[in-house]
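[Target chain]
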Amino acid sequence: MSYAKGRKYVGKYAVKITFKGKYSGTKTLYFTIKPKATSISSLKAGSKKFTVKWKKQATQTTGYQVQYSASSKFSKAKTVTVGKNTTVSKKISKLSGKKKYYVRVRTYKTVKINGKSIRIYSGWSKAKTVTTKK
């Protein structure tokens, strides 16, 4: 069996199993280590806007994504990327007044695989709701 080094860090890895003796052949399995997720710590409504704050995840993350929608199923959702892992809040504006929004956050890590930069995402946080003011 052979595998890539550094398997405790966020990234995509392969494990190659080579059969010996009475058995022949190889099998390669791929797996992904995702960054640690975050959670929303507060949502503050404003006039046709809201501010979302989340818990900081500074290790093995590059940034965050905030997703919001008027639908609890996040259909027609808008996603905003925050490119610094030290930033822990985002103001979302130009919204409708007196409207309920569902909000969730996730972390991501940008890694290089075969010379290409790709993003690996955590799962989404539990959604919270906020109603904008007039």
Remarks:
- The first strand starts at residue 2 and ends at 3.
- The CA atoms of residues 10 and 62 lie 11 Å apart.
